[in-house]
Structures are given as C-alpha cells and as structure tokens.
Design brief:
The chain is α/β, with parallel strands linked by helices. The chain is built from 7 helices and 7 strands; from the N terminus they run E-H-H-E-H-E-H-E-H-E-E-E-H-H. Helices cover 31% and strands 19% of the residues.
Amino acid sequence: MRIAGRVRVIGDDVSSDLLYPGRYLTVTDRAEQARHALEGMGADRPARLHGISILGAGWNLGCGSSREQAATALPGAGIGLVVARSASRLFFRNCINNGLPVIACAVLAGDLRDGAWLQADLSQGEAEYEGRCYRFSPLPDALLGIVRDGGLLARLARMADTGDA
C-alpha cells in the first residue's frame, strides 16, 4: 500500500486535545470535524492543512485523552498518513480503526520539513524522502487490511458481506 503527498510538521507531545479541542466533541460530521483539526494549536492551524496529505510529528503524538475525534478529524482534513517519532497507543489504534495509517519512525519523522514530498510503502516498510530511503516496521497485514477497507467498521461490514473470517 503506497501513500504519497506533501508534509505538514507539528512538534512533540501534541495531545489529542490539541489535535481536536474538547469543545467540538459533540460534532459527528467528519467534514465539520476537519474544520477544527489542529485548532488547539492555534486558530490558523486548520487552514495550514489545505493541500497537505501527510502529518509529521515528534514524540508522543496523541497523548492525553483517548478521544476518537483526534483521529477522525485528520482524514476529513485530507490527511492520509501520519509519520511520528512515536504515538500514544490509544491514538495509534484510533487512527488505524478509522482507516488512517500511522508510521512510527524516529529518524524519518525527525528529518521531515513542511511542504516536502514523501512517498511511503506501508506493506514494505520503506519511505522515500528527499532522495533518501528510510526503513520502518511495516504495518502488519491485519492492520493494513483495516486501513485498506477504510477502517474497522468498514472492514467488519465487508467481512460480513463476503463471509470472510
């Protein structure tokens, strides 16, 4: 599974509260959620995601509360991949369960710069960035299947329809 696009970089210890402020937790429409993605980092932040498909981050991305909206607002805003030095386990799983892949690769995440182009192969565990090849642990097949199907609920529905187990 290959993903490519422009990168927007945020810092270390970006909590789920900063990714998606608590005052919008009652919003269920993902297009509306997208309008508030990263708003906790400043009112201009949601607009900075326009034309961006990869979010780069430092250590401990998604720490804090386990709010699922931190993971659902990002794809609505056009983010198709997250690359971080590390991510909280709850945030990582919320992303996967909502069809948003996450790569944990400290070296790659540390090299990322705003606006640069990144291409990653999630099943091979390889990324190309500024002429350099990076290796990371590929996502396991079970998680890739969830991402490919658009999230856990979509995968379960597909499995029920096809009789796959």
